[in-house]
Amino acid sequence: MKNPSMKSLLLTAAMTGLLSTAAPAAFSSTHASTNSNGNSVTKSSTRLLLTADGDTDKHSCKGKNDCKGKGGCKSGDNGCKGKNSCKGKGGCATDGSKPKAA
Amino acid sequence: MSSLLEVQRRMAEAVMAPLTRQEGMRQRAADGRPMAKEAAAYIKPNPRLESFERLEIYNRQYWFRVLDSLAEDFPGVQAILGAPRFRELSVRYISDCPSTSFTLRNLGGKLSGWLEEHPEFLGAQPDLVRDMVRLEWAVIEAFDAAERAPLSAEQLENAENPHLALQPHVRLLELSHPVDDLLLAVRKRKSARKLPARQLVQTGRQKTYLAVHRADYSVHYKRLEAGEFHVLQEIHRASPLSEALEQAFAGSALPETEQAQKIQQWFALWMSLGWFCQV
């Protein structure tokens, strides 16, 4: 348990920090410019790391709202992914029919 | 065959039954019934495919999809365990915890708890795998968790000891390994191959505090000091600010002025990141 004056000092410090900062938009502009250059973002001497390169996996659709509320970015992209079982059977047609020639 | 519901349940059971080693549909159901007979009960054959073959397409596509989905969500775990062991883990996990949601986003949500009941799948470095599972699930949660309007300075002006709330997308992790660095290394390799033993050994035990959060539609990690983590954790638990600050330097010999300086810097940064919202 800290003494009352110490508690007051820390509380004042926290409030000062909270009130000294501009709106989060200031971060957004910094971040956006760095995002396209690599993984690391430096902000106020603090390391922030992007969790993924921009061109990988489902997060490649980050920023596109069409994924929201539709089951992430998963639906429709994994059906026969990497598996050739459907080849020669007309894709994934469940009646065994062949796709029409284009 | 009676009701539609019964057909749906029987077909779901067949579709979600594990595949053979050759990735085909099993010849018999779990209770011993021949699958050819089962399929014929509710699927008509056609000139090209038998009932069994038509049902098998659904069975296979279910497993291909959920296995790919889990591998996509947990590349770090796969890199630690290696693809064959991860595959074994996945089949068993999905058999026990099949997809029950409209979205595959939720498929891995029970993995951490399930692994505690099945430690035989954790491999040679169980705590490393545990940490990676927690991190990768936190990334998924941070990716699409809600974001509320950030707290503004105006809303704080008259508050003496405010209750703060963290944005729903901020996840706090106390880990025993620096798996954030390991996961970045895995993603840079863009390969499902198991990580070299050398790299795994290098990821030795190291207490690691992490915030996983979202900014501009991208998920980020941020390393935290122990004091930062504990303050944020108390805020997350809805403690008043003064009580949260009690946790920052418990047992620390840091001079009071330096403690205050750190607190000010931390709160300024968190505010700039938009981590606080109204209670």
Helix and strand arrangement:
The complex is a heterodimer of chains A (102) and B (279).
Chain A: H1 4-20, H2 25-35, E1 40-43, E2 46-50
Chain B: H1 4-15, H2 35-42, H3 51-73, H4 75-81, H5 83-96, H6 111-117, H7 126-144, H8 153-156, E1 165-166, E2 171-175, H9 179-189, H10 197-202, E3 208-215, E4 218-224, H11 226-236, H12 241-246, H13 256-272, E5 276-277
Antiparallel strand pairs in B: 1-5, 2-3, 3-4
Helix pairs in contact in B: 2-3, 3-5, 4-5, 4-7
Please supply descriptive tags for the structure shown above:
heterodimer, A: 102 residues, alpha+beta, two-stranded antiparallel ribbon, 2 strands, 27% helix, elongated, B: 279 residues, mainly alpha, 2 domains, three-stranded antiparallel β-sheet, 13 helices
**Strand order, sheet with most strands of chain A:** 1-2
- Mean pLDDT of chain A comes to 49
- State the separation between the terminal residues of chain B, measured CA to CA: 54 Å
* Quaternary status: heterodimer
Overall pLDDT level of chain B = 90
Pick out the low-confidence regions of chain A.
25-47, 52-91
The parts of chain B where pLDDT drops under 50 for at least 5 residues are none
Q: Which of globular, elongated, flat, extended, rod-shaped describes the shape of chain B?
A: elongated
The outline of chain A comes out as elongated
Share of β-strand residues of chain B: 5-15%
Helix content of chain A: 25-40%
Number of helices of chain B: 13
> How many β strands of chain B by DSSP?
5
The helix content of chain B, as a percent range, equals 40-55%
Radius of gyration of chain A: 25 Å
Number of domains of chain B: 2
Radius of gyration of chain B: 24 Å
Q: Span between N and C termini of chain A?
A: 76 Å
Output the helix-strand order of chain B: HHHHHHHHEEHHEEHHHE
